[in-house]
Design a protein that fits this description.
Number of helices: 20
Mean pLDDT: 79
Radius of gyration: 21 Å
Structural class: mainly alpha
Helix content: over 70%
Shape: globular
Largest sheet: none
Low-confidence stretches: none
Distance between the termini: 13 Å
């Protein structure tokens, strides 16, 4: 754990240094803030790209090996069913919490901001065009495995990996042993790379934080204080609910799990990308005692179907925009919106701002001006910190819970 603590401390120091650097540039050298942000952000870009480089091969190898090693199709179905029940329940609870708190706290009515310019959210609105059933199917079913690898389409890789893993599991262990063994070695080699890449995390954190503070300054916290306060309060309630459920399932081991995933949580919070911590999360869950086959099977699925923080944010943000424009949505409309978000959000990537595209599409569907997304764009980075961290917590709990239900949660003291 000494190496982990050193990295954790390094990330905390990088956070503080990043805020100070960004603040100094914003206050003392405002003319240089744009250039400084563009250059310092490259540190974050390097870290994210290093992680993205290993996401596709890691998901493919771990998922195929996990399913092939099960060799019991009934077990695959049983584990998959338990995982999907958790995902659906957690998603509905997350969406409902966002809906309840945005209606109770009414941040959109309190802030009374002016309507945004029509072109203020052009980029996000443009990206949301064509979000139809046809596009959703294309997003899920891969046309080419190599194209899915090249574009890091996690859900497409998951679909292919499940089919390939099930095929191997049905062919007999003797026949498929060399392939499974080779992929297993690849997976362990990639996990070894994770250790090296994670030491770039402090630089990535420093770059990301310094850039956003230098550009927006500290005023952004004041301007949107009410929105951020209400959102993080609702997010805190979601954390309490998740932790209570986790305690009922894991008992006192919940605290050990939280201690083990503190690093992934912090990195997700700093980089606003739950995808960035996927490899590290795989490693820590195995060290915690989760069965490696279950981790390899559930975690990639969770990154497509179990983004609790993003789910809660989508209902919160959509109703907030409606409140800003004075659009009074009935309870029936809000419940329909919840169900629409439940379906359309499945498969969104665990990368920064992916959920904004879904919010824009949903607003358009319910007659809410999609340009309202511009109201939350300036602070979406800070909201994304909270929801990315919550996504990581939700997936860690889901994987641990299913391992416990399967009777395959060991207490082996941190060995892989």
């Amino acid at each position: 754990m000494k190496g982990q603590n050193k990295l954790f401390i390094a990330i905390i120091i990088a956070l503080i240094v990043g805020v100070v650097m960004g603040g100094v540039v914003h206050l003392q050298y405002p003319d240089s803030s744009e250039g400084f942000s563009k250059n310092i952000k490259l540190l974050g870009t390097i870290f994210i790209r290093l992680v993205q480089m290993i996401i596709a091969p890691l998901v493919f190898t771990t998922l195929v090996v996990g399913i092939a090693k099960m060799s019991d199709i009934k077990m695959i179905g049983r584990v998959g069913t338990k995982a999907m029940l958790w995902f659906i329940t957690a998603s509905l609870v997350s969406l409902m919490i966002g809906l309840v708190f945005v209606n109770w706290l009414e941040p959109g009515l309190v802030m009374q901001l002016d309507k945004p310019a029509a072109d203020a959210a052009t980029e996000v609105v443009a990206n949301s065009q064509g979000l139809s059933l046809e596009e959703f199917v294309k997003h899920v079913i891969p046309k080419s495995l190599f194209e899915a690898f090249a574009t890091n389409e996690v859900l497409q890789i998951v679909v292919f990996s499940i089919m390939f893993g099930v095929a191997l599991a049905n062919m007999g262990e003797e026949y498929t042993k060399p392939i499974v063994r080779a992929l297993d070695i690849c997976a362990h080699a990639i996990l070894k790379m994770v250790g090296y890449i994670m030491w770039f995390a402090p630089l990535g954190v420093l770059g990301a934080i310094a850039a956003v503070v230098a550009t927006n300054g500290f005023e952004i916290f004041k301007v949107y204080a009410i929105y951020l306060r209400d959102f993080f309060f609702a997010l805190g309630v979601l954390w309490v609910v998740l932790c209570i459920v986790g305690y009922f399932i894991l008992g006192n081991r919940l605290f050990e799990l939280l201690r083990r995933i503190k690093e992934p949580l912090l990195i997700a919070f700093s980089t606003t990308s739950s995808e960035a911590v996927f490899p590290k999360l795989v490693e820590e869950l195995e060290r915690f005692g989760c069965n490696n086959r279950i981790v390899s099977f559930i975690l990639p699925l969770g990154y497509s179907f179990n983004l609790d923080g993003s789910m809660m944010y989508m209902t919160f943000a959509a109703i907030f925009i409606a409140q800003i424009y004075g659009i009074d949505m009935t309870l029936g409309q809000q419940i329909i919106m919840l169900l629409v978000l439940m379906l359309t959000s499945k498969g969104i990537a665990g990368v920064p701002r992916a959920s904004l595209v879904i919010i824009v599409a949903t607003c358009t569907m319910f007659g809410i001006p999609p340009e309202g997304i511009a109201l939350i764009l300036p602070i979406d980075h800070f909201c994304d910190m909270g929801r990315s961290m919550t996504n990581v917590l939700g997936n860690a709990l889901a994987t641990s819970a299913v391992s416990k239900w399967e009777g395959q949660l060991d207490n082996h003291g941190g060995d892989l």
